[in-house]
UniProtKB/TrEMBL annotation:
UniProt-listed PROSITE patterns: GLYCOSYL_HYDROL_F4 (PS01324)
GO biological process, one term: carbohydrate metabolic process
Organism: Arthrobacter cupressi
MF (Gene Ontology): hydrolase activity, hydrolyzing O-glycosyl compounds; metal ion binding; oxidoreductase activity, acting on the CH-OH group of donors, NAD or NADP as acceptor
Protein name: 6-phospho-beta-glucosidase
Keywords, ordered alphabetically: Cobalt, Glycosidase, Hydrolase, Iron, Manganese, Metal-binding, NAD, Nickel
Amino acid sequence: MILTLLGGGGFRVPLVHSALLRDRRPGRVTELRLFDHDAGRLAVVARVLEEQAAGMPDAPRVRRFTELADALPGTDFIFSAIRVGGMAGRAADERIALEHGVIGQETVGAGGISYALRTIPVVAEIARAVRTHAPDAWFINFTNPAGVITEVLNSLLGGRVVGICDSPAGLARRSLAAAGFPDLDVYGAGVGIDYIGLNHLGWLRGLTVDGADVLPELLADAAAVESFEEGRLFGAPWLQALGAVPNEYLHYYYFRRENLLAEQEASLSRGAYLSRQQAAFYAAGAGDQAAGSALQLWEQCRLDREQTYMSDNRDAAGTFERDTADLQGGGYEGVALAIMRALSGADGASAGEGAGETRLILNMPNAGTLPGLDSDAVIEAPCLVGADGIRLLPAEPLPGYAAGLVTTVKAVERATIEAALGGDRNAAYRALAMHPLVDSVRVAHALLDAYTDHFKELAYLR
């Protein structure tokens, strides 16, 4: 198979490559195409991949492209991991939000809306290129905000699109371990995950092992709840009150004041920190005389990135260190590999599923799964993936604690899409004003002015 990765100069590309190297089965990827407008970043990442593949004579061939039309023809799968505006754009999203007294995280609230407004027009151009040069390819979206971008791509590419995120599987893995099953694969035989919501806005409502739901017993044990990351973030009393385990990003909604204070008191925002770190990595790895091992340098930066992940939230909750198992990073690359193998028919059946089908938590159009959302609304939920495509598994309706928030945030996403595809400033204004993390219409107006003044990519909204 041929895989084309958009954003091929990105920092997380070696994670995808490492997953491809570990896959020794028939039907694996034999050619990896990296597309990026920045040839310098591509060269640094290619150096890391070359070191990763050292000593493996049958490693996938790696090719570099700076023109999308050259990278697409003949490809079987397309991964999108682009960041419009770069890490500096993320830092600006966060800074502007904080200057206006609201949370600045890159995928939720004002920062996520600004990020989407910059990204959707670029994604629309990419979709046009895909229709021309690779109409039969499957498009796997990593690009954030993942739910919004996946919904746009589905509307433009007619269905051969799926969005992925590693948060739900990580949440399920940690919950299984806390419940006394550390060695079980979250997608393995006998394990069932009742997870539902939107991207970065979902809840684990049930967790079965051999047909028995182990989540109620876990939630009843406060010490066990607070032995894993989400339990320490939210606290046992709140998880017990919900009867569910929220996705880590819901911490911004449930602990808004604490998170805002932690972000305001931080010496650097997360985006500014990563912007500085990654600039140093690419500078050190550039040029023919780059000192030392590019792979070792990348590993050091990756470990630091994982150790500091959601550090402001941990500060807001009362500082704690991440578990060693959570520092391995990645996860989404394994999901992407599983999707490719299942869609291509390369894998056999998972236990309990039909021939060649794999069970994964993905971002897909609702198609009647959740009442209250239309069929085209992208949700994040368990799916079956096979050679015939992807289908959502049946799910219970959203509980009361979730339904209103999901409906509101989906309305924000829809207004954001309307603004970006139609060049509608009023729709962007509505999106910002409706978001639960933006608590004032006046602030929403000021945020829109500030973002459109700062970003040249948002000139269409001025």
